[in-house]
Design goal:
about 375 residues, 16-stranded antiparallel β-barrel, alpha+beta, Porin
């Protein structure tokens, strides 16, 4: 028994004596393993850096692909007939639009219409023609501008494009509810007119603001400016997120050119709910001493997936000498049948009532396709 106790004590003494040596060996092995991992990590980092440099060099040597050019076409052909109007077919529009990006923040747009036919513009004083020139609005080139989008809701556009006036005037041509716009845009040309200049847009929540400095209000389109006077204008649009479908806008333009002043002031109101869209605009202005006023109200109703019906009441009172009768009222009924989202046929029946001239009726049937 005594021998066993002594033997156990000797064994315990040997274990205690060897423990420090074993711990020392374990620590050295761990340090060697850590050092090996460090060397392996350094080698992996070197390989990663080398491959990254090779990739950067390959990307730098590779030519940058050109920005794709978007191309679209809008074609409108119509048949017209009515009082004092020779019945016949007409290519109303053949708009070819090109666009693309220049880098990350720059866009460009070019649009021309080969269907345009050059017309003459006359200037009358006391009913007598005093000047004849080419109507610049009948030129083939329509839009030609560059847009810079630096972020923060800002857009800066330089070149030729539509003036910032009238909701209907700025509405895309392929989405009009009638075959023609109202008189404030077709006869008075307050809106739906293009001009060279600078336009700055800013989106702020429910608001969108536009400021513009232009050569004119459409008469100098596609022409070199020869007048030191400029047109200054602006437009503000409010679309409250709390009332979806509501649109309220106000626009103004003013300037003094050498031959006569131009002033425009207009308000716009629209509301869309489900298949129904209601729109109204009022506008007044001066061209020299001649004052003009116009306004319209329209309703548009979507019937199913293919049909739309629309009606419009339109009123104009103008002192422009170029008009045979500046006091006119128009009643328009229209219908649209959509084949799909690219093609449709549209018809409008118009009654024109004048103060001093007989009334006139006209019907227009138009086929539209876009690609």
């Amino acid at each position: 028994m005594v021998r066993r106790v002594r033997s156990g004590m000797v064994s315990l003494a040997l274990v205690v004596a060897c423990a420090p040596h074993a711990q020392e060996q374990s620590r050295e092995a761990l340090l060697r393993e850590i050092e090996a991992l460090r060397r392996e990590q350094a080698a992996m980092q070197e390989r990663f850096d080398a491959r990254l440099k090779a990739l950067e060099a390959a990307l730098a040597a590779k030519p940058v692909a050109a920005s794709p050019i978007a191309v679209s076409l809008l074609a409108q052909t119509r048949f017209e007939a009515g009082t004092g109007l020779a019945a016949g077919f007409l290519t109303r529009r053949m708009e070819i639009k090109l666009g693309g990006k220049i880098g990350r923040d720059l866009d460009w747009v070019l649009m021309f219409d080969p269907a345009k036919s050059t017309r003459l513009a006359t200037t009358r004083v006391g009913g007598v023609v005093t000047d004849v020139d080419v109507d610049q609005r009948s030129r083939m080139l329509q839009d030609a501008f560059v847009a810079f989008r630096p972020g923060g809701g800002w857009t800066i556009e330089v070149g030729q494009k539509k003036v910032p006036f009238s909701k209907e005037g700025l509405q895309p041509t392929d989405d009009l509810e009638q075959t023609e716009r109202s008189m404030l845009n077709t006869i008075l040309r307050f809106g739906d007119a293009r001009e060279l200049g600078l336009q700055v847009h800013k989106a702020m929540g429910d608001w969108t603001f536009t400021g513009a400095v232009l050569n004119g209000v459409g008469e100098t389109m596609n022409a070199r400016e020869t007048d030191t006077g400029k047109i200054v204008g602006g437009r503000a649009v409010y679309r409250p997120s709390s009332v979806p479908g509501l649109h309220v806008g106000l626009a103004a333009m003013s300037g003094g050119l050498s031959d006569r002043r131009r002033e425009r002031l207009g308000g716009e109101l629209a509301y869309r709910r489900g298949p129904l869209t209601l729109t109204s605009e009022l506008a007044s202005g001066f061209d020299g001493d001649a004052r003009s006023f116009s306004g319209y109200g329209s309703a548009r109703w979507r019937v199913g997936s293919r049909w739309e019906v629309a009606g419009r009441f339109d009123r104009m009172n103008s002192e422009l000498a170029s008009l045979s009768d500046g006091n006119e009222t128009q009643w328009t009924l229209g219908a649209i049948y959509h084949f799909d989202d690219k093609a449709r046929v549209q018809a409008s029946l118009v009654r024109r009532q004048f103060r001093s001239l007989p009334h006139r009726d006209a019907i227009t049937v138009q086929v539209q396709a876009k690609f």
